[in-house]
């Protein structure tokens, strides 16, 4: 493992430990913490989905004028992306 990989792994481990300690010592109840985390993950999912849709649309705009060069390629890309 390279030095950079070790640093990144240590950083991620530190973030995870910090999050767990933060939840354990939080003044909110477990139910409030779960609701907050659920909301945060839902927002993250929604924003990720929006970004993926934007990226797919930009891809279509780039591929569309060139679709004659590669027949069926845009269908393959859309099938792969599930769009």
UniProtKB/TrEMBL annotation:
Region annotated Disordered, chain positions: 56-83
Domain of life: Bacteria
PANTHER family: GENERAL STRESS PROTEIN, SLL0268 PROTEIN
Name of the protein described by the UniProt record: YtxH domain-containing protein
Protein's organism: Pararcticibacter amylolyticus
